[in-house]
Amino acid sequence: MTATATDLLLEARDISKRYGAVVALRSASLAVRPGEVHALMGANGAGKSTLVKILTGTVRPDGGTISIRGRPRTIHSPGEARRGGLVSVYQDPALIPDLDIWSNLRLTATPLSPFREWLTELGLERLDLSRTARQLPLASLRIIDLARALAAEPDVLMLDEMTAALPANLTERVLEVVGRQRGGERCVVFISHRMSEIASVCDRATVLREGRTVGVVEVTARGAAERIVELMLGEILGDIPAQPEAAARGAARAGGETPRMSARGLSAGTKLHDVSFDLYAGEVLGVVALEGQGQDELFDVLSGSDRPSGGELLVDGKPVSFGHPADAIRLGAVYVAADRAEALLMQRSVRENIALPFTTRLADWGVIDVRQERRKVDGAIERLQIDTRAQREVRRLSGGNQQKVTIARWVAGGLRTMLCFDPTRGIDIRTKHQIYILLRDLAEAGAAVLLYTSELKEIQIACDRAIVIYGGRVVGEIDAAHADEESLLRAAHNLPPDAPTPEELAAEAIAAETGGGPAAGAPAADGR
Amino acid sequence: MSAAAGVPDAIPGRRPADVVGSLLRRGGWTLGLIGLLVLLLLATKLIQPSYGLRGIQGLAISVLPLALVAVAQAIVVIAGGIDLSVGSMMALTSVVSAVLMENQSEALSIAVVIGVLVLGLVVGAVNGILIVVTRVPDIVVTLAMSFVWAGGALYILNTPGGGSAEWLRQLTLGSVGIEWIPRAAVVLAVVVAVIWIPIRRSRMGLSIYAIGSDPVAAHRSGVPVTRTKVIAYMLTGLFSALAGLSLTASTGIASPVPGPYTLLSVAAVVLGGVSLTGGRGGVLGPIIAVVVLSLLRTDMTFLNLNPNLATVAQGVILVGVVMFGSLLQLRRSRA
Amino acid sequence: MSDATATVARSPWLTAAGWRQLFRERPIIPLVGLLALLVGVSELVRPGIVDAGWAGVILRAAVPLAILAACQTLTMLTGGIDLSVGQIASMSGFLLATLVGDQGLPVAIAVALAASALAGLANGIGVGVFRVHPLIMTLGMTFIVFGLANVWQLVMVQTGAGVPEELRWLGAGTSFGVVPNSLVLFVPLAALILLTLHRSGYGRLLYAIGDNPVAARLSGARAWQVLIILYVISGVLAGIAGLLYSGLTNVASVTLANSALLPSVAAAVIGGTSILGGRGGFGGTIVGALILSVVSSLLSSLGQPESVRQILFGAIIVLVAAAYSRVTAES
Description:
The complex is a heterotrimer of chains A (about 525), B (about 325) and C (about 325).
Chain A: E1 10-19, E2 22-32, E3 37-41, H1 48-55, E4 63-68, E5 71-73, H2 78-83, E6 86-89, H3 101-107, H4 112-121, H5 138-151, E7 156-160, H6 168-179, E8 187-191, H7 195-201, E9 204-209, E10 212-218, H8 224-232, H9 246-253, E11 261-268, E12 272-279, E13 284-288, H10 295-302, E14 310-315, E15 318-320, H11 325-330, E16 333-336, H12 340-343, H13 350-355, H14 370-384, H15 399-413, E17 417-421, H16 429-444, E18 448-452, H17 456-462, E19 465-470, E20 473-479, H18 485-492, H19 502-516
Chain B: H1 16-26, H2 28-47, H3 53-78, H4 86-101, H5 106-134, H6 138-156, H7 166-172, H8 183-201, H9 203-213, H10 215-220, H11 225-251, H12 261-271, H13 284-302, H14 308-334
Helix pairs in contact in B: 2-13, 3-8, 3-9, 3-11, 3-12, 3-13, 4-5, 4-6, 4-11, 4-12, 5-6, 5-11, 7-11, 8-9, 9-11, 12-13, 12-14, 13-14
Chain C: H1 2-9, H2 16-25, H3 28-45, H4 52-77, H5 85-103, H6 105-129, H7 134-155, H8 165-172, E1 174-175, E2 179-180, H9 182-199, H10 201-211, H11 213-218, H12 223-249, H13 261-270, H14 282-301, H15 306-328
Antiparallel strand pairs in C: 1-2
């Protein structure tokens, strides 16, 4: 790192940003040289997206400086950033849904012929530009957005998770094009979770953790991948007393106990094809799946949000048909979502949020028994140890406390089956522990728990056994107690148990580790 | 060389086939409305064989203020807003023009017309700036401002009065060229062609659609969202002023009490295929919707039906069309 | 806009943050302060005007407005709005006046309120089942009710219409010289609405659906049930307000209460109910209606024309709404 400030194309120093009580960035720095493809890495919640928003002018930093070509700049809007030579391609493409592609190009004053050329390079030459953005699939929109950015010939091109949701052939093209940007006058900031992509196109990587820049790694150096992993995972999960009697319960089940919930060949949408499993009272059943294998659709069907297009769902051995979440709730099947914004009444109090399911049925529309409600709510608050200092408005609670409220809602009212879809996404490690313990306690008390999590480590800690979903189908079942992270990963990728190569595994481990969950988990990269 | 600046607006190489294709895809609603209009005209002729020249001219004159205010509402709805003060802005501008023009010379009246149009821009800008600065929902701000502008109109003129310059009155009467082309329709076409079409084709027009369609993506594409919003409200003010002037012109006096124009403009915009969520539609649809609604009323009179049933029909059509649309959408999202 | 709120507060002992919190969590306190201020100003500019009789006049005007504003408050809590209440109120008053002669008062009231409920039911089905935007649905209903009321007017033109004595007693009369009789109706009604909003499961659902319809659905609430009943309630309340209006003014006309539509939204907005849903309540709305009523009376006592009243109404709405959006904004 011998480059002086003036050699740098883009330099951000000591950027800080807080949202109310939440600190998004403490001290983030990023220095990019001309002709470089620079990776920006970090687990979810590390502050990557905030830093990107600040660099592109969407968000104002609280402190720190940004310089482009050595000159300090304040960027007030993406338009200004664009004129200053900094163009971004976001995770959700910045194309206007109701305008055709022509008009979208005009909006950003993009020259047509370079755009066409880049489009061809990226493998999308047969695009009808008179279609509106709304009519095109997400993958095409991403490519269009990238071609548009390339055609503007920016000094700094920022790519935020560019390859997510792209099919393999397009990903290859994109990486090839990005790789070709090396060695020129300009630079690329490349944000990705996928270690293999970083390794193939990037020169250096800046790693963020908990809002700080914790290191810059030369990607081409030996052992770089391990170093990056080390930097990304700061805190390692402590031990949780895992399920001691899993095996015993498995044995009891063989005796012919009726499953709490059974799926028989469920299919829905374009992603869920044929899923069957049995969920028993007293167990936590894990769902192991990579992003987008149909688990979203599965949980929508199980919780009554969507109707299945095929197959059968049984509760206590009887076939059921859920037309509305209320139908599932009536049978004691409750849903905990990953996205708190989906589950909470942000402007209402903790009490009202927890008591919400008490009043949803027509029969409960009358006068509320305040004393009884308070007893139930207080009990749940205590059980989940919710910090209620900001209880008048749930939106002022921390993410972890918000998630506790969504769980407390069901704990307070009583439940038989809990469907948890990535309940620990983006929350702090202490709260995660509390949630695992709570799930185990619920199972202990006779509930059936289905847990999908994007963090494989959690399967091992919280579950008795796990089913593996790949391509919309159940491809295997794992005894969680004996599954280490590596075997879970292999299973998630639907690989046979003996398909090693340590490098690949390390790369995948990072991809999976950070695929949806925050920085936590085992040091996945030690290979063996 | 940074972020290609100064690239001309028009992108060369856009094939005519693309244009036609996109017109067909997006113009379906408008085409349907035109079809409905033709059917209604035929029905009118069947019901009342004597319906002809005079009927068409009367229709054009009576429709002009409403058509202009429908355009005003359409622009702001496309930009993702809504303006409940258009009726009041019409009253205000109409009153101002009538008071200033009464017994004045031709030359002065031209200055008055220009002044009133500027007033429309200013009044619209006040609406827009208040929305952007206070961050209060559009519907609340414009509702509040509808009191203010209507109060202003009442302050200036307590009872209907004032006058209109003769040339302004003549502007909407009679016909142009062959007698089947009513002058009022030509005025409408010219006004829309001169003001809206150039904007629609410029980057400003794209920006207006962009902020209505997806403000976040627009912001990221470098569109100055707040400024564009204020400009959209200014255009709405301008067209409301034109509608107000046409009221003065058609009646020769001005009334300080706002007519039912605000609600009718919203209805026309929705029937005209402009999405209330912003970003979709145009100004032609609402104009045709206005003509359809008013022709419907004429037909009911000819049929010796109670004319109030026409109002009922307007409401039923408004609700029915939107229900139909949302049913289609529901089915599509389930499929 | 904090300047505006600060002048209202006159509370130097409160810190800015404390003031914000007070406004956010107990908006009714600064609102009552504003009301008191306006009463004070009234007394200042016309010494001796504020007495029991004056209060009676204010209340008589505020009561039907508050009932109409209840429609807006309830619908706005769910993220909706009801633009048809003015027309429904007019229709209800007119219907009663035309029927009372032949059918007697009880039947006339029953028919008027049933018609109001029917219009509300149609609104509710449109909004709840067909998911038509409430603005459009209730706007369309305004046209429909207006047209039908006019048809009815032509049918009834022979029999003529008159506001019955009992209604005049209720709407315009006073007891013990000063207490408006409309309070007999309003106090229990307001208590019922407040109870519904704060102590009933149904009220909780109104807030829930307005705050986050997805969360409400995931918790098992069926929005269409809530919305259909909501708009029926709104229709009936509008019908009641219409009866009071025709009693107050001794007029039966198919457009009588239409001009009260915008003030009804204004009263709810001033009272702190957010048009985006999930925030607000009826207590604030009552104060909002009183504020509008006092402002009207203040201006007319100053000899200011209607125009100034309207301009001031508009300015108050914008200022108060801006103050709310300021204090409730996130970070």
